[in-house]
User: Fold these one by one.
Assistant:
Number 1:
Amino acid sequence: MTKDIQWPDEPCKKCGFSDSWEVRRCINLGGHETYPFCCTECGERTQHFVFKKVAKAAQKKGLVIRDIPPAYNKKRPRCEVCGADGAERHHWAPYALFGSDADHWPQSFLCPSCHRRWHDVVTPAISAQRGLG
């Protein structure tokens, strides 16, 4: 049913629980659907994602995908580059390279277009690998 999904093979970094992951649907600050893995024990989100088309196909085959509440309740932030509404948080130190230490580095809000452009120019290999490009 979910053979196309590469499930995490490490324990949760928050609670240490292993072998119990689920895919959840999240609407990020930019308004995009993402499908991160979450620990079923504590709910911690990983920085590993399932491609949207793979998640949708698995859902049609019976995989239950619960929603994560939106990351915003009111007006979404503006892009710090072009001023567009609906910006998403950008980590200047990518999670793929810095892991959880990325949260200790500066962050900004970028609209999906500027965010994609930054990753295409600065981290093209990571963007292609994670399906961000």
Number 2:
Amino acid sequence: MTETMSQRVLVAGAGALGSVFGGFLAAAGNDVTLLGRAPHLDAIAAGGLTIEGIFGARQVAGVRVATDAGRLRTPFDAVLLTVKAYDTAAMLAAVAPLVARGGCLISLQNGLGNVERVRDAVGAGRAVGARVIFGAEIPAPGRARVTVCAEPVAIGAAAVGDPSADAHARRWAARIAAAGIPAEAVSDVHAYLWTKVFYNAALNPLGALLGLPYGALAADADARAIMDDVITEAYAVARARGVRPGVPSAEAYRRLFYERLVPATADHRSSMLQDLERGRRTEIDAINAALATFGAAAGVPTPVNTTLARLIRWRERLGGLQSTGARS
């Protein structure tokens, strides 16, 4: 297949992020199906998908929608996985059989462990991971807005060095970039995924607990001290697990974090805060709690990450939710 040919794409989890990816790819001529919840998808089916924000505007008609993966039959050239981390296993069971033999499944998710689950579900040659560090929201059903972007989407093989997965990553990075979303292929996506976890672990729980955007957190000395400790612990856990983050030290990452990443997303309200406001479960188990679990296994203390995970779980329970999964 040439790069100019339309591809069949399934977006598995058509919330804000999935709608942006699906909408831009559809506007670029790909055959896109959005799999998600009824209110948003009903509006898209009736009036098309409207995308606005910093990547530009798109009005997309003719996007296919589905609320039940069991009704989908035709194989897809790419399945983009955009569900919350705690829904990964269930969604993979539903959509992994829909990946074409020569296709791939791309995780565009937050947290740790997702790309490994994708690799186990479809095999190393068809498993791709992506680090996404732009923010999006759904202001109303049928609409999606891109609010902030710190860096291009980084796309790479789930199994580093796998030639088939590397080819998929290069092809889809080029296709996504051509559609209008900044993206690039990388040789080791795990380095990018871990540094994204540093970012999420430092900002998401504090932003959720305090109800503040990222810039306000970075402006306060006490909040900065907590975030500094989160990053130090997370970096130590990564190194203990043999991960080589994309920056040489925790100190170097903190400079990048405060000088470039936070300013680019200063007005963003964390998805964890939005989940709590809506009474939904958060992704804490795949972020700070995962760091605490990995740290305990490696003998690396993680008192700040552990405390933040406990506070978020407590806040979930106050909202009538009970987080499940790995515990620190």
